[in-house]
Amino acid sequence: NAGVTQTPKFRVLKTGQSMTLLCAQDMNHEYMYWYRQDPGMGLRLIHYSVGEGTTAKGEVPDGYNVSRLKKQNFLLGLESAAPSQTSVYFCASSTAPDRVGNQPQHFGDGTRLSIL
Amino acid sequence: GQSLEQPSEVTAVEGAIVQINCTYQTSGFYGLSWYQQHDGGAPTFLSYNALDGLEETGRFSSFLSRSDSYGYLLLQELQMKDSASYFCAVRSFMFSGGYNKLIFGAGTRLAVHP
Does residue B101 have a pLDDT over 60? Predict the structure, then answer.
């Protein structure tokens, strides 16, 4: 069982370059999320999606774009990378909340991105 | 505003019990979750509390007091493999679409020693 798969696992970019991070889930989850994790700051939500074809902004959306063309895939794009975007990026997916609001998120192993 | 506070580090010995506290300030609170993350790994879901009281799952328990805006994660019979970071997270209606979002605390790093 693959769960949530992120590619690539590591990447080094130069300032101004663009790239796309891919997230794929095989659990038929409706909801998908992109987070970034920086030392001492926990996980911060960048963008999320509650279904195919829909996306919404999270806490720190600036400098990122996303697309959810297929239910199983959620892409995160950096159009012009900046050193401040050096971070570990996690993708997660979940079902809709249950009757008490529980909605465990399943995370990928992360993408470690360095921007020089 | 919206904020979560948890201790940055906790140290304990094998076999002991440790409690990791989380206080939150938010409007439209819906529930409190806990996640575990080992170094270099992915966060994994541990527990969720929507109502006041204690939820037990094996060696781990989680507690919530909505009136005090406070919760904790209790780890019993600590093992070396429990050394990890633990994050509390809240779901609230603070922002548009807030129901579908989790806001995470900065995490508590637990070190278990022999």
Answer: yes
